[in-house]
ABC transporter permease (Pontiella agarivorans), 650 residues
Amino acid sequence: MIKVENLRKTYQMGEVEVRALDGVSLSVERGEYVAIIGASGSGKSTLMHILGLLDVPDSGTFEIDGTDVTKFSENQLAAFRNRVMGFVFQQFNLLKRTSALENVGLPLIYARNGKKTDIADKMLDLVGLANRKSHHTNELSGGQQQRVAIARALVNSPSLIFADEPTGNLDSKSAKEIMEVMSELHASGLTIILVTHDADVANHAQRIIEIRDGKILSDAPNPHAPEVPQVETREVEEEGKGGFSLRTIREGLVLVKQSIRSLAANKVRTALSALGIMIGVAAVIATVAVGNGAKAAVEDQMSRLGSNLLMLMPQRRSRGGVAQAQGTVSRLSRDDAQAIREEVGHVVGVSSTVDGNVQLKVGNLNWSCRVTGVDPDYEFMRSYEPQLGRFFTDEEINSKAMVCLLGVTPVRELFGGENPVGKKVKMNRRTYTVIGVLPEKGSSGFQDYDDAAFVPVTTAMRRMFGRDYVERIEIQIDAPENMDRAQMDILALLAQRHRTASGSFEIRNLAEIQDAVSSTSRVMSLLLSSIASIALVVGGIGIMNIMLVSVTERTREIGLRKALGARGGDIMSQFLIEALVISFFGGCLGIALGTAVGYAAERFANMTVVFTQDSIYMAFGFSAIIGILFGIWPARKAARLNPIEALRYE
Ligand code: ADP
Ligand code: MG
């Protein structure tokens, strides 16, 4: 079954070369029970590790069932260790804080053949631990632990068992029991290769190979061997086909469960590294929410202005009240407004506008506020549909009617919040009838949009301020794409009407102001979220740090898993899953914290915050990517460890 020739293995210890194996040739047939004996340091373990495919020789040939295994890939070796071989070590090498049953089931995870844990169950029955299955391994005696290790070696029905000083750490009674188990296994058809320095232990075997200083001293049948009723020999099973199935999911869940367990074993450390991710994710969620809120607030304010608006006003060429040159002061009139309405295309609304401050008086209550004279179009252009009463009619404009609309602030101050429609109010000592209450527009900064009163523009011009010109004309255009065109047409029309250069008037496009403001808020929120992303990356580095520590700390465990048949990919996914679990928890907590911070900002700092589902998905995506990205390096480091060096690591 096994055939090796001329195996050599040399260790370099500083200046000294240690020839652990110096030309070993031997072959072992199926069903044999071989003991390798020799003094400590003679090379027994080295030989066993090479025979067990845990280590590679420097030179020599090695065949198993006629197959040259020296050319095997890492994964093929792992599969062989998993299916064909079972290992029993002197130090038991069981996973701590893990039940006997799960320890035994470990090789099944890596076998991928869908065998269930009932095999592990049966194996524990076989080694006489039926009543200790759910005990953690640290609650078992040395002899019991070694039985668990034997059960684990048997679980994938191997054809070869390697045991390196299996009784070395046991008292004589347990040692005797373990050797009985070994003999029974041999009797059931298993091939056993046992390494020991103890002649009594070796006497259980049928053949004894003695080595000294890396060379075979003698190789002979054991005259004291007990009689063994030979049963049929075991055959290696075919490797199960991999593929995605329910089983894959179940194995995945086992991996997740294992990683949660190992993270739970280091609660403080796990919590601290999840904290980094949590802060990062919370920062992203909160800043995105605040940024969106700021954007929404700006948009809201802008929508109060109305859309597609142009504001036409005379160009200011003078400073500090000095009269303009040649006395040709360009002033806008209501006729200009009328001409624009009639002659310029794409115009949907026009309002001449005049404003100033007045003293309002009701009974003995006084209130001074801004009064604006407007045309009826103003109602829909600026969305000023009255919440009570109605807006001006053309009739009232033509007759310069003594009517007004009030904002909620003067209504509160002068009427105590009661419905003022139909009541009288004095403005600059003339009496007006209130016909409506303006909708609430809120405030921005220092400006209270509700502290306002409207009168017909004609009334404001003639009766209130006594002038025949208007301050500006507001024009609404049907669609954004027609704004530029309309703007040019209006300027041309005015130049013609006033016989001046077209530079006498200027037009402001409110959409452009709107764009400028919202792009500023966009830059702000971009800045905030990039700072938040830096926090996330820092959190990721924290995870990587912890994972690297964890890999170093668990080197022996990694070695054991590899010895039991874990491939590089299995180890890699184990550590990646751990990194992912940390960042997942961190991400969840971060979403909660970020949301809380956002609401706190809304509640106590009076900010507008807008949470979107996108930012939640984004935070989750981010933390997953961070987990994978920063987990890959430690995971690869773990996956590349050599099994036997890892097992020796202290
Ligand atoms: P045994 O199991 O028979 O006690 P080993 O096979 O463990 O002996 O070791 C054989 C020789 O190789 C010893 O001299 C030991 O010091 C040396 N050796 C074993 N492993 C290493 C190693 N990783 N590095 C250096 N020397 C080693
Ligand atoms: Mg040894």
